[in-house]
Design goal:
- The protein is mainly α.
- The chain has two domains: 90 residues, Orthogonal Bundle (Arc Repressor Mutant, subunit A); 104 residues, Tetratricopeptide repeat domain (Serine Threonine Protein Phosphatase 5, Tetratricopeptide repeat, Alpha Horseshoe).
- Helix content is 60%, strand content 10%.
- It contains ten helices and six strands, in the order βββαβαααββαααααα.
- It has a three-stranded antiparallel β-sheet with strand order 1-2-3, with no helix packed on it. Strands 4-6-5 form a three-stranded antiparallel β-sheet.
- A hairpin with a 2-residue loop joins strand 5 and strand 6.
- It is elongated.
């Protein structure tokens, strides 16, 4: 019988197999798994993984040492590692479906939500994007010892999250929930001061709530 598995990257790194939490050792194995999950189903070249594991300064022995880390990570994952962590020239990949990786699930829900918004189906857009955002449990990579991984992948994931949040709030405003989203928009504007869309949405929500002076102040 195939193992049920869940890889969680949208927050602290978590792996569950048949509802059992697996312990992933801190250090290079944790970085290796996070790097592979950030592009689950894709082959990541060994040289690229080495850059991430050693924060841009891999040793001369990096390729051989990387092979040892892959072996140790497979051991930590148990049967799951043998089945999913694969060697594939020119590097390695995690073989997993959208149902098994929260990041892939998030991407699929966001695509459906944005498509619904473009079609003016605001109920569906709000529902899909709210479900997507509920997958986030915190900031990715905070428990992964690789500054380079956080710098290269963190902004991409945050952009996806904020874009989904903006569209979900836009859907809520279209559904008449302008008063309810004002506080959330205020926090988003403070967190992302250079983004234009949250401020425009805040102006709209304030205007519809009868708070014209505050809307003009924005």
């Amino acid at each position: 019988m195939e193992l049920r598995v869940e890889f969680c990257l949208l927050g602290p790194l978590v792996v569950r197999s048949d509802d059992r939490l697996l312990s992933i050792p801190h250090g290079k194995q944790r970085t290796l798994l996070a790097a592979l999950l950030a592009h689950a189903g894709e082959v990541i070249p060994a040289d690229e993984l080495a850059e991430l594991l050693w924060d841009g300064s891999p040793p001369l022995s990096a390729r051989v040492t990387l092979q040892n880390y892959v072996k140790r990570l497979r051991q930590a994952l148990g049967p799951l590692g043998q089945a999913r962590l694969r060697t594939h020239r020119p590097g390695y990949l995690i073989d997993a479906s959208a149902d098994e990786v929260d990041l892939l699930r998030f991407g699929a829900l966001c695509a459906a939500g944005h498509a619904a918004a473009r079609q003016g189906d605001w109920n569906q857009a709000a529902a899909q994007l709210r479900t997507a955002l509920d997958l986030w449990r915190g900031q990715p990579f905070t428990d992964v010892p690789s500054d380079l991984l956080a710098l290269t992948e963190g902004p991409r994931l945050n952009e996806m999250r904020v874009d989904a949040l903006e569209t979900r709030i836009d859907a809520d405003i279209h559904l008449g929930e302008h008063v309810q989203v004002i506080g959330e928009l205020g926090r988003l504007v403070a967190a992302e001061p250079l983004r234009e869309r949250p401020r425009a949405l805040l102006m709209l929500a304030l205007h519809r709530a009868g708070r014209g002076v505050e809307a003009l102040a924005q």
